[in-house]
Amino acid sequence: MEKKEKLALVLGIELTMQIEGMEEKFRSILVGIESPDYLMVRMQIPTRFRNQIDKGTVFIVRYVYLGNVYGFKTKAIGSVDKPYKITFLSYPETVESLNIRKAQRVSCFIPATMEINKRQIKGLVMEISRSGTRFRISSIPELIREVTINEPIRISFPLLGFEGIQNFKGIIKSVNSDSEGLYFGIQFEDIKPGVESMIDGYVRDVLDIH
Predict the structure, then answer these.
(1) Torsion over CA: 69, 75, 77, 83 (sign)
(2) What are phi and psi for residue 129, nearest 5 degrees?
């Protein structure tokens, strides 16, 4: 069911944008937020549309975050060209959401290792569902510059019901940080049905306890 929402965004999240009145969509990355004044995005605009975007151009924006599809209207309010092309968008007055999560997610505290760019990084799985995890590490500033959205990774951790360490393929869907560290939203790829069922069982057990 669609409902009105407050803006739920994290830096680095991928946005799907389209110019109002046009069908073609293009990808953008959120690089800054100044609530309640503006958003900052790096747009990957098809060349043929670049001359149609100016101050006041209205966009329809959609994105997926924590199992919900969000959508809002905004307009271009300015831009800078150096050192990178950044477009400033008006802060949306209203946001609509649609819950699409098929799997429940629970908080946890599981030691894990993520392999990215041939580099192994130890951290903690903070949330888990059959579709993915939220992985936290101590802040590594240079890593933020190295990671791109939809980048493939591997993550390994012990899973209740299985012997030894389990290895998962995944892709990075979001990156954000706070005073406690750097967080990666990871979507599992090619997960086996038996493992999905085991994760579902773990989630149910945790929910029953709570």
Answers:
(1) positive
(2) -145, 175
Distance CA 156, CA 41 (A): 33
Enter the DSSP assignment of 144: H
What is the set of domains in the chain, with CATH numbers?
3-99 (2.30.110.10), 106-209 (2.40.10.220)
CA distance 102 to 129: 10
Percentages of the chain per state (helix, strand, coil), in multiples of 5: 15, 55, 30
Average of per-residue pLDDT across 105-123: 88
pLDDT at residue 178 above 80? no
Residue 112 CB neighbour total at 10 angstroms: 23
Model pTM greater than 0.85? Answer: no
- Residue (of 4, 204, 203) closest to 110 by Cα position: 203
Query: What gap in Å lies between CA 170 and CA 183, rounded to an integer?
Result: 15
Contacts of 135-143 spanning 24+ positions with Cβ under 8 A: 135/183, 135/184, 135/186, 136/180, 136/181, 136/182, 136/183, 136/184, 137/181, 137/182, 137/184, 138/181, 138/182, 139/177, 139/181, 139/182, 140/182, 143/182
Partner residues linked to 129 by β-bridges: 132
Query: What is the rounded CA–CA span in Å between residue 13 and residue 25?
Result: 16
β-pair partners for 80: 86
Task: Give the number of C-alpha atoms closer than 13 A to the C-alpha of residue 164, restricted to the C-beta side.
Answer: 2
Q: How far is CA 53 from CA 37, 63, 83, in A?
A: 20, 21, 20
